[in-house]
Amino acid sequence: MSPEGERFGVYDHRLTIIGLLLIAFSVALGGYRAITKYQVPGPFSHDNAGFCDFHNGLYFPTAALIEGISPYGEVYATTYPVDRQVPFFSPGFFAMHAPLAILPLRIAEVAYFVLIVLTALAIGFFVASMVGRYRRWDLILMITGLLLLSRGGQSTLYVGYFTMEIVLATLLAIHWAPRRPWLAALALVIVSAKPTYILPLGFLMLARGNYKALAIGAVLSLVAAGIPFAWLAAHASEGNLITGVWEIAEDIRATQDVHMLVADEMPVNTWTRIDLPAIVAKWMQADPSQAKLVGIMFFVLALPMVVLFRRNKAGVDDGAAGLTGLLILSAFLASIYHQSYDAMVLIAPLVGILIGSPAIWRRAEGHKRWKLLTIAGLIVLPLYSFYSTRILLGRADPAPVVLRVLTSVSGVSVAVLMLLACWMAWKQLGQDSENTDRTIPAVST
């Protein structure tokens, strides 16, 4: 596929067929697992986790919100058929999914499964747009198929987590921020659903100079979260809003403690974490406090933020699929709590490398092609990290050291990717301005 392909109506029938087959296979496999290993709402079991995250992390929390019951409190955990109260996700995000929660559970499950696939297709469309292939349906379908076939894609189809929505919003926030700050701000409202997303992304975008998008996004996010939060507070204290706010704040603190005490969430035990602090903690056999983890986040983000700040001052920005996107996304993943499914955000720079667009990826060809191969390989490792899944590790029963190595590969890959992106981005600043990508416009939609 030539990077100079026309904007409309140019496609490869073979790639279209392959993309459709990948989508069909991925959806069938994920759907089969979700049905055959379906989780009857209630206590969690690794052996039967089909759509458990939809139940525990979206449907019932949203249903509770509608009823004025805080999904962060013990009353919720004892009233609804869930494993435990939810960690702090923005109540505004739950409110956005209210239409699903008023449906019968089975219908809502089918609807959300379809929504996952459609969101993956939307990611394919926008990523194709980011590399200049606005209506290349062969590429859109290929990206969608590869995304659904990834570890994160299969996990999302199986457990029904809302990862696809956050991944799409993250990519759009980065993509739209320079030229369409209002649209980027709307995307940031969705990103703000998870503190571990909005915190690192917010600081990286700040260093990039996306002030307007961040300011508008902060206001909209506060409004989106504040209204349902006030609703919960009013119900929690029988109309005394101030007392209710303090009660829910205490619930949130308690639920975070409960969440972090779950054995699978601890860095020393997890096989899914890909952030640098978790990998270091795993090898040190330590369990750092949340305060320490936030401090480590700033330490990890320091170098990428300096590089982004310098690039912003120089007017260098090649978008979410370029070196800028690679730098932001790798630092975002490496800095603080992220799971294997979060690696799906790397699909944008991966496609950029494979297509050779934006131009930074074409200029690295020839004697520098090893850079592209290295970067692509480092992206593929966490994207398709089936080598460290619970099923494989359980059957292989590796020695403890081998287990640590296998469950650290993805995190190490992301950290190396971040350092390599910093080096390339800094080096690019010293090149002649004629050979430097300038800020690219956001895609028309």
| Helicity range | 55-70%
CA-based gyration radius = 22 Å
Q: Averaging pLDDT over every residue, what do you get?
A: 89
Number of structural units classed as domains: 1
Which oligomerization state do the chains in this entry correspond to?
A: single chain
Strand content: under 5%
Task: Tell how many strands the DSSP assignment holds.
Answer: 0
Please report the distance between the alpha carbons of the first and last residues.
23 Å
Structural class, from helix and strand content? mainly alpha
pLDDT < 50 runs, ≥5 residues = 1-10, 436-444
Order of helices and strands: HHHHHHHHHHHHHHHHHHHHHH
Q: Number of helical segments? A: 22
Shape: globular
Q: Could you describe the 3D structure shown?
A:
- The chain has one domain.
- The chain is globular.
- The chain is built from 22 helices and no strands.
- The two termini are 23 Å apart.
- It has 445 residues and is an all-alpha fold.
- Helix 19 runs antiparallel to helix 22 (409-429).
- GO terms for molecular function: hexosyltransferase activity.
- It holds the Pfam family GT87.
- It is a multi-pass membrane protein.
